[in-house]
Amino acid sequence: MKSVLFSRFFILLPWILIVIIMLDVDTRRPAPSLTPRPYFSPYVAGRGGARLPLRRGSPDSGPGRGAQKRNQSGPQPPPQPEPPLPTIYAITPTYSRPVQKAELTRLANTFRQVAQLHWILVEDAAARSELVSRFLARAGLPSTHLHVPTPRRYKRPGLPRATEQRNAGLAWLRQRHQHQRAQPGVLFFADDDNTYSLELFQEMRTTRKVSVWPVGLVGGRRYERPLVENGKVVGWYTGWRADRPFAIDMAGFAVSLQVILSNPKAVFKRHGSQPGMQESDFLKQITTVEELEPKANNCTKVLVWHTRTEKVNLANEPKYHLDTVKIEV
Ligand code: UGA
Ligand code: MN
Question: At which positions is Mn(2+) bound (predicted)?
């Protein structure tokens, strides 16, 4: 009898040990990584802009996501198919000047951190410049490089800027989505000298038709903003031409791709357009004030700044090339 019990015990012993070891290992699983992640890190950028877009509702991406999966024990519910992340199309007019590459560098450094962003860079030039072509090739961003020159007669102080370039961007967008059912997308006009927070892109991504938000350092004030009551825009806080139907800067709104496609004639107009009225003239064609979607906590947060770069002092620049090397700046 005793020997039977002994033999049973020795047969069971290894199994008991295995169960104990497994339970022990399970409780010692690594804690979630404490490695700091970029605040709004929407993807992990790889060479040439390879990226894992952040899925809505998931605070993690890239390595974090995998680690999270391993940490969960027990059977997993089947993953829900998530709707695709709307692409943000940023149309940037740009022109040749000493600070151009610096401006584009700042912009690319921001855009590179935004998931699913397509940069439409439109040069105000008769041809694509080598500087911008080289720059874009190395920017690590999905992009489209267009060009259209502003007719000379419109290159005067007091006249609106970048009309032709923004229209070229709109035309490209409409052409690209001509035949296919439009993928979800959001259009935003991103001048090359402004400053954009990453949070701004999270806000605009959910634009259903036309969304609006405050802009800092514009209109002769610290900021301009849409005034919101009960979730609706009811007026404008502005210090400049309050009579504008949409008293908002170009950096203060985004439009869904669907709205752009269903209003194929909506463009920026030269005829009769004054500086400062371009935004209103465009928005009038596609929406109404009542329809606007306020973003940035009911338009109480500044997430974009209308910064302007000082003209550089080149007083000591030699007339003829003196240096032994030629350097792109
Ligand atoms: C303000 C608005 O914020 C602009 O959106 C608007 O286009 C402009 O006024 C206007 O007057 O039309 P502001 O800072 O005065 O902006 O203008 P810029 O930043 O000098 O130009 C706006 C954009 O157009 C920039 O991306 C700039 O690179 C581009 N641009 C400017 C050109 O493509 N060609 C030009 O000759 C000048
Ligand atoms: Mn500007």
Answer: 193
